[in-house]
Amino acid sequence: MSVYLTYQIYMNWDWDKLSEQRQRNKGGGGAPKPPNVDDINSTIRKIRGTGLPGGKFIIIGIILLWFLSGVYIVEPDEVGVVTRFGKYVTTTTPGPHYHLPIPIESVMKPKVTQIRRVEVGFRSYGSSRSFTQGQSRNVPEESLMLTGDENIVDVQFIVQYQIKDPVNYLFEVSNQPKTIQDAAEAAMREIIGKTKIELALTTGKLQIQTETRDLLQEIVDRYKLGVNVLAVQLQNVHPPNEVVDAFKDVASAREDKSRYINEAEAYRNDILPKARGQAAVILNKAEAYKETKIREAEGQAKRFMAVYKEYQKAKDITVKRLYLETMQNILSNPEVKKVILSDDSAKKALPFLSLDGSTLPIQTGKK
C-alpha cells in the first residue's frame, strides 16, 4: 500500500513547475526552495480525488514533514540568522534550533570564525592562498598610486577580515567582498598620498600597513559592514616598470652612501679610542712631571732654608763647607776637563778663559 501511495504522489506532483522554480532560484543565485503551500494543497487535492484509502494519513504525514523542515543545526564556526518573510528576526548560537517552515521563516548561517581576504592590485591564479611573483595577475588600475612627493608607486596588498556582526554583514550591503576591496583601496590611496616614496619602498611599510588597517576599520564601521579588519599586508611595493631602472640606480647609490658612512664610523671607532689613550698617557706623564718638579722645588727650598739657618749661626764655616761641596761636585765630574796649577805656577801662567767650556783652570793654594 505504501509503495502505491508513493507512486500516486509522484505521478500527481507538478514536477515541471517545481523544475522551473528551481531553475529560477538557481539563476538568481539562491539555493533551491521547496514548493509553497499552494503547491502542496494542489497535490493533496489531486490525491484525495483519486479516492485512495488512507488519504488523511498522507496529508498528516506531509504536514508533519513540512513542520520538521524547520529543524536546523548551526555549526561551531557559524551563527544562525533567522528571517521571517525576508525580515531579520533573531540570531541563534551553535547547536540544534527550530524555525517556522519555509516560506514563513528561513535561516542563513555565515561562518563568523573564518578568516576571509580580499586582494587589491593583483589577483592570484587558481586556489593559491599566498602571493607569489609571476603566479598572479597585476591589476594596475588598482595598484598604481600617487605618493606624497608626487611620485607613482605600484602597491599590491591583501586585507584579512572576520565577520563581527553577521546581521550587518548580511543585510547592510550586497557583494561584501567587493565593498571591502573598494574601501581598502581608498584607504591605501589616502595613506600612500601622505607618504614619501622613499619610505614606501624601504622602512615605512609597517607604518603604512598599520595606518591603513586603522583607517579601513573606520570606513567599514561607518558603512556598517559588520566586519573586523585583522590585518593589511603589503605584498609588493615597487616603482612602475617604466622607471624601475632609475630607481635601482638610486637604491644602489643609497646603499653606497650607507656603506661609506659605515666605513667612516668604523674608522672613527678605531681611531678615537687610540687618540684618547695617547692623550691619557701624555696627561699622566705631564701630571707626573709636574708632581716631580713640585716635590724637587719644595725639597730644594727646604734644603736652602736649612743651609740659611746654619749660615746665620756660623757664616765662615758654612761658606767653607759650601765651597768644598761645590769643588767636590766639580772635581768628581768625569766629563769636565781640569787643569790644576800650584800657586807659583799660577802666578807665572797667563790666565785664560776656555770659550768652549771644555777646560776649567783651577788654582790651588790659599786665597
From TrEMBL:
<dbReference type="InterPro" id="IPR001107">
    <property type="entry name" value="Band_7"/>
</dbReference>
<dbReference type="GO" id="GO:0016020">
    <property type="term" value="C:membrane"/>
</dbReference>
<keyword id="KW-1133">Transmembrane helix</keyword>
<dbReference type="InterPro" id="IPR010201">
    <property type="entry name" value="HflK"/>
</dbReference>
<dbReference type="Pfam" id="PF01145">
    <property type="entry name" value="Band_7"/>
</dbReference>
<dbReference type="InterPro" id="IPR036013">
    <property type="entry name" value="Band_7/SPFH_dom_sf"/>
</dbReference>
<feature type="region of interest" description="Disordered">
    <location>
        <begin position="21"/>
        <end position="40"/>
    </location>
</feature>
<feature type="domain" description="Band 7">
    <location>
        <begin position="69"/>
        <end position="251"/>
    </location>
</feature>
<comment type="subunit">
    <text>HflC and HflK may interact to form a multimeric complex.</text>
</comment>
<keyword id="KW-0472">Membrane</keyword>
<protein>
    <recommendedName>
        <fullName>Protein HflK</fullName>
    </recommendedName>
</protein>
<comment type="similarity">
    <text>Belongs to the band 7/mec-2 family. HflK subfamily.</text>
</comment>
<feature type="transmembrane region" description="Helical">
    <location>
        <begin position="54"/>
        <end position="74"/>
    </location>
</feature>
<keyword id="KW-0812">Transmembrane</keyword>
<dbReference type="InterPro" id="IPR050710">
    <property type="entry name" value="Band7/mec-2_domain"/>
</dbReference>
<comment type="function">
    <text>HflC and HflK could encode or regulate a protease.</text>
</comment>
